[in-house]
Amino acid sequence: MQTSVSVRDLSLNFGSVKVLENLSLDVGQGEFLVLLGPSGCGKSTLLNCLAGLLDISAGQIFISGKNVTWEEPKDRGIGMVFQSYALYPQMTVERNLSFGLRVARMPAAEIAQRVQRASDILQIGPLLDRKPGQLSGGQRQRVAIGRALVRDVDVFLFDEPLSNLDAKLRAELRVEIKRLHQRLKNTMIYVTHDQIEAMTLADRIAIMRDGIIQQMDDPHTIYNKPVNLFVAGFIGSPPMNFLKGKLEAGSVKIDGTSVSLKGYDFTKSMEGADIVVGVRPEHIAIGEDSRKMPVTMEGDIEIVEPMGSDTIAWTKIGAQPLTFRAAAEIHLVPGQKVAFGFDPARVSVFDAASGVRV
Amino acid sequence: MTADTYAATGAQPAMAGTKADAATGPSGPRPKRISPGRIGIYCFLIIVAAFFCVPLYVMLVTSFKAMPEVREAHLFNLPREWTIDPWIKAWNSACTGRDCTGLAPGFLNSVKIAVPSVFISIIVASLNGYALTFWRYKGAEVLFNLLVFGAFVPYQVLVYPIIIGLREMHLFATLPGIIIVHTVFGMPILTLLFRNYYSSIPLEIFKAARIDGAGFWQTYFRVMLPLSVPITTVAVILQVTGIWNDFLFGLVFAGKDNIPMTLQLNNIVKTTFGTVEYDVNMAATILTALVPLAIYFISGKWFVRGIAAGAVKG
Amino acid sequence: MADLTVPVAGAAPPARRRRKIQFQAIIATIPMIGIAISVFFVAILFTIYWSFTKSGMFPGWVWVGLRQYEILWNTNNWQIAVSNIWFFGAMSLVINLIVGFLLAVFMDQNIRQESLFRSIFLYPFAMSLYVTGLAWQWILDPNLGLQVAVRSWGWTDFQFAPLGDPKQAMIGLILGGTWQGAGVTMAILLAGVRGVDQEIWKAAKIDGIPTWKTYLYIVIPMMRGAIATTLVLQLTGIIRTFDLVVSMTGGGPGIATWMPAMYVINAIQSKLNVGQGSAAATMMLAPIAVLLFIRAIVSWWNKRSAGMNVS
């Protein structure tokens, strides 16, 4: 795979505040990379650095094999889509698409052709004569994507493009962006704080926190093998259960319940250490099914949340809360005693002190 | 399935096929060049700033010169011999017609006029803004539009009818009379100010007060007034500055006993015995401008906010 | 019946309770209602009415039709005042807007010491127009001011003493007015410039649009509100122009810098001619009325076209 965007040892300081530190990153040609993290983690800042909208403090940026560290944004071969759409309000859609090309003195025929192509792809032909104020949020964002499209660039940058839309439109446009990526096969770097967007769109997800990439992997790996407690807790809804315990003779003691961790190499070297066992709510079986699980126990149901497609329920192991996901058909009531169990082979185990996966 | 292969955090190592020039190419922050454009920007700003400073500078240096030195006509030179006599004279012995009292009585009058006017107009305006924002009774909009209109009407249109009205009430050329005039003319803009401010308060706060059982006055005194400190500051600045700087109303409505400072300044400057005492005039001018200037430099940000808020009426 | 705080279930229909509270709101705003109606409505009607009467020293009720206006427009002072206000108004408006806008744009360039520059540009606004007039009158003094000072520096035939020359005195007024008011325009326009979504700037940068073109084609059209605000502020100020002229030129030399506002006050205070004063005042009201009328039409038009967009 050819590299499309690559970042070398990038740092960014605002005065004495280190926003990004020594960050390196490679994005393959045609890859869809999602930068995911809580607000203030530096993901948008990183994107702005890539676009050349922020001057970096140290490091290098390459786009399509060219060192663009000192290049102007327009010369970097990128298009960008913003959260607030950032359309020029007093220009028609057609003008919005073509303004940059006109300023660059491109021949009119070429401009017309590019606008035509973008409006075909995004199906905004009927809107070309309107002004942004007359468009719905979804239409505006489509135009904003079109403005990136006409630039005919290799790399698209998206800065939380769907965050201003309501839930339904967001889901629709998400699919459309995915379709667009499959059709154009451009490199796309996409910033979001929404884990659903990240999981559904990404070829790879980079999870950021405090200006540092915690983990960069495909969505499946991120979900099933989070490298640390932060990633494990950030991805998944309801979030992963974290059960604290002590490692004793190949088993972990969780508030009196002993769970065998046979088969894990680390058990010998970490004997006596505090660890955290992470169990996804959907990996917990209840009732009859729990008997098939290597680890089983019992607990009282405290709260039940029917979601329609399934049901989330709260219980406890000792004093530690535990949520699990049950099929919608299973009838659960608060106060009811249920048997539940899970397979230690599917859990994630973290060192309690460092939070790192072991 | 062991987990330790994923133990490493951070980015994956570089892929194959990346550039060989990684070490040599541009790196780090863009080199900063001082462009001619930026020099031009600073030149323009500094020249304009100098132009803006000149009058204050000239007034100051003139006011510290004695008249013989002023007559040498070196407008921009610093005084050779500094003297504060012009300031003393301007304050307590410059003549207006027969009286030689200086600006001091004018200063006192201005305070006597400004304090009650500011106080009354702000109370009335905040109450109006509150009522117009949260209790829109029938016809309130019409009244409000009338007030907006009042903010734009040239004062001269209203001067004579108000003279007649005040005369009927035996208030013309009295202290209460001019206080009323300032209160009235401050009301449109202040009401607008308060209404815009209250409109920016979440309606939920008002609703919560209602659900807690607070009525019209309780909501005003217990909920809205405590929230009004910033806008009241702006209103005070706006009103004090406006009243202090007023010339027209003082000229028409103040009467002989309540001549405000700006008008007193006018009387001093326009009274000449042979030669014009420019040093005294300039000292008097600065003295008159001192109160609003002090407010401006102390309040800084609030003053700007007041202008912006006042401008919202457009 | 005074207790509005304790809701009594079923005691009074909600509508009535609400009306009772609204009644209090009306009581609270009675000062405003009184002032708004008596001053900003009735008083204006009186002025307009007196302008059609023979009123002299005291207001009278003898209807003379348009006679006062005939006299007014045949008076040399008024004619000069009107042509002065047009010239002064147009020049001040344009110069103030250009200077204010340039300052706003330059202040927006991420400059050092922004707040210092801002304080300098804005402090004249804290001073009254009267004080402004005195300061500039002194600077422009033909015998002791700028002209002589510059000549003493070696530029011996330097000439700039507009206030002594009837043909140039207006320039002095415009200079003083701009000095006092350009900072406010700057402040309002700067707020307008800063109000533009930062992402618009980013988008323009990615599109490769030069800064000046971004200002010209994107930012200025987005600042219509701020520009309208400064225009309205300027216009109302210009029509009222009084203090500045009184202190700077006293209307002179001769009557070269008379303004309508001076005419009104002069008619009322010195000439004791209420009819003339009222007619002149009514004429001053006319441009405001026209502006408000235009505004009403524009808002009506906007509402109409907004309604059409929905369909």
Q: What does it look like?
A:
- Chain A has 358 residues and is α+β, with helices and mostly antiparallel strands.
- Helices cover 25% and strands 35% of the residues of chain A.
- Chain A folds into two domains: 3-234, P-loop containing nucleotide triphosphate hydrolases (Rossmann fold); 241-351, OB fold (Dihydrolipoamide Acetyltransferase, E2P).
- Chain A has helices at residues 43-51, 93-103, 108-122, 137-149, 167-184, 195-201, 219-224, 229-234, 266-269, and strands at 3-14, 17-28, 32-36, 58-63, 66-67, 78-81, 155-159, 187-192, 204-209, 212-217, 241-248, 251-254, 257-260, 274-279, 285-286, 295-300, 303-306, 310-317, 320-327, 337-342, 348-351.
- In chain A, the strands form five sheets. A six-stranded mixed sheet of chain A has the order 6-7-8-3-9-10, with helices on both faces.
- The mean pLDDT of chain A is 89.
- Chain B is an all-alpha fold.
- Chain B has two domains: 36-83, no CATH class; 104-268 and 289-311, MetI-like (MetI-like fold), CATH 1.10.3720.
- The longest helix of chain B has 31 residues, at 104-134.
- The model of chain B is unreliable at 1-22 (pLDDT under 50).
- Chain C is mainly alpha-helical.
- Chain C has two domains: 14-50; 77-310, MetI-like (MetI-like fold, Orthogonal Bundle).
- The relative contact order of chain C is 0.12.
- Chains B and C meet through helix 1, helix 4, helix 5, helix 6 and helix 7 of B and helix 1, helix 2, helix 4, helix 5 and helix 6 of C.
